Amino acid sequence: MTSTRSPEITQERRDDVAARLYALLPADIRAEDAAQGRALEAFIAVLAQGSAEIDRELDRFHDALFVETAPEDALTELGALVAAEPMNPLPQGAGWNARAFIANTIRYRRGKGTARVLAALAADITGEGAQAVEVFRRLVRLQHLADPRGDRPGLASLVDGETRARAGTAQDALPRVSDLRSISRAGGRGFVPSVGLHLLRPVVPVFAAPDTRGLDRDALPAVDVAALPPMQPWPVGEPPTQKAGYFQLASMPGEPIRLFNPDRRSDGDEATGGSVRPERMPDRLRRLPLHSETDALRRAHAKGEVGTPVAGQWFDPLNPAFTLFIRAKGQATFRQIPAREVLIANFDEAPAKRPVPERAYDWVRPGETVTSTGAAPISAAFDPVTGRLVLPAGVEADEVRVAFATGIGRPIGAGPHERNAPDVPFELVDGAGRTHFIRIVDGSRASEPEPGKAVRRVETLQQALADWSAHGDRPGTVGVIVLARSDRDARTANLTIKTHPGTELTLVAAQWRPQVARPGVPVEANRHGYLVRRERMFTLAAAIQVEPSRAPGTTPAEAEEIGTLTFDGIAFTGGIATAPHSVSALALRYCSIRVKPTRAALNVRPGQPISVTIEDSLVDNVRVWSSSKYGDARGSRLTLRRSIVGGTPEMSLHMKAPQADVTICDTTILGHVEVGTLDATNAIFAGSLKVIRHQVGCMRYSYSATAQALPKRFRCQPDLALQAARSEGRVSAAQAEAIALGLAPVFYDTDLCEPMVGVLHPLTDPGIRAGGEGDTEMGAFAPTGTPIRRANLTRALDSYLPFGAEAEIFDDSLSSSAMYWRHRP
Questions:
Q1: 823/386 Cα distance (integer angstroms)
Q2: pTM, whole model, 2 decimals?
Q3: Which of 292, 305, 615, 689 is the 20 to 30 A CA-CA neighbour of 484?
Q4: Under DSSP, is residue 479 helix (H, G, I), strand (E, B) or coil?
Q5: Residue 91 and residue 331: Cα distance in Å, rounded?
Q6: Rg (alpha carbons) of the chain, rounded to whole number
Q7: Across-strand partners of 505?
Q8: Over the range 605-616, which residues count as b (16 or more CB within 10 Å of their CB) and which as e?
Q9: Hey, which residues does 529 pair with through a beta bridge?
Q10: CB-based contact 24:68 (threshold 8 Å)
């Protein structure tokens, strides 16, 4: 194999090799050498360098023989050895694992040409939910006792209401006739040798239910459901008012949240030939299948039968589609609601009345003529399409928490997805002039004493901020407020955060892992614990006001000592506002800032140059003020990476920073923008764009609906399309307008509460979908490398398709407006 760069040999390894070589000498020679000044031992130490190098090369050689241990630069040769198709490079951080792909290649080769391998290949390359459908299985045919196919009737079934919802997807149940056209052409999905690869683009992060096996599910302590987000009151009526028993999952009042089925695929699904049952795929939940199963469970309970009497398993006991936990009024513990006690309902509109607490059933047993009757209790009515819940009449609850999954084009905004990264601290260790001040907010436990100590567990966020305000003012202090539960602070009054000069403060939704003393492992006094940034999301309903703890100095040195503030993994529904001279740097990671229309989501009043960084977040609007009332903002920097801004049509400007230097990378802005200077890469400006100082800055691989008064542009759209058209002849103004209109991006959804917000629709021109840097798409989803992944899949299929067969990729992802009609039988 090609020689790879070997790691440096440490002095510890040299000493170890020298000691082992020297120990091989007879004892009398070593004794004589010790008596004469250890010259021989020094000579052996010189030889040990060469021996250590030989050992290192042998270790490297043996590591390179196995894909699990081979160095990165040896993977190409291992891939060639097993004929793994080389893939086009993906953007950094896209999650592509070449090592796993090469390791799976032999498994692919063993099942080459089968639907199960094509589905696994598509899932591994694209990172999306994938199913392979052999077209001949959809053809209408006469049933035969030797090969019955109950899932493929001769006529479309209009009884169960599922036919329309599944049409055109991998679960399409419509009978088809043979077609001689290519599968890639419209209407040509009936060509017998063809295979359709159906992909689902959204990723599905999960708030996982706790393992309650062996526990009393009627009395679960609050600590067991700490990772699950609570529902908030659902304002109903006109004007919207809060009514008892009405709840919603969405952070923003009145908005829906779309529930998805957790990814429950397993290796055992390969036996189904590439087609996976819908209750195992990571797709949107629909009301009818869930209602059919819960209703059958209730009927069985009313009849005194045991077991699941339906074919589906949406509510698998070990991994259900969702689980409700209710803390009844006045109770301290939660009850896990069985699936049979959940009434699946349609809450697109609020019901005028709450449901009845039980449902009656009647049946006739085989061999009997008398009708039997029974009833099954109803503990909650829930809509998985909107994430809304209504309790039955006469039932009251203090708290409702839900284990569920939701979808998003990629991990962005607040949620349970993985947020750990090399550039954020995992372990909190004092040192180098930095002292940590840590508060763990956990509402299920009482506050610990001693407000001034370094690490303290408190009951509320207000207590943590009060401790920080009183004891965190020493320069060099790094404050970390860990929001350890997926809670919601429902206070609507302003919440003030004080910042101290020369300090850093971070509010992060994360799991807290303290240092644990173990036998034989020394305890480090300066190590406090660890932050695990996943499976937690904290919601703040209050308007956040950031203020300095004292008036700042007037000299530049004193201005530089202003503290910094970071938010990580938090959903805001009241917005964030900073007072002048409160922070020198403000950062948001994986945050969602949703506010009422016409209200500022992120309102920065600098007072002096400030740095604002927004990464992997969903923000309604951003304002960095330039008014002399708040000080001079010239020199301020606003940086957006991998984020989505806008979506509220009532706003005239979704980003306003007329004196700031703005840098935008891999970001989609759905609204209107006004900035001082602009540097943009892989950005989409769907609304108007005004750059005040357009003589500086640059736009690269970006789209802008505005064509004039912009910085210099490099490979931007619609510039490239207009240049190509003009190279073929004269283009009139009307033709130029038509070309520009044809380049306008088409999104699945533009509302920030929808799963497919900002995701480019296949109808979007390839100049946008594959016009970004490195042939990826423009906008917030450029890091996924979706067009490159799809091209890689198309390229790899040639090696796995049977002779004469043809495959086509179908995107089964749907917007919420398209799904609206599929929810209706």
A1: 11
A2: 0.89
A3: 615
A4: strand
A5: 51
A6: 31
A7: 479, 565
A8: bbbbbbbbbbbb
A9: 428, 514
A10: no
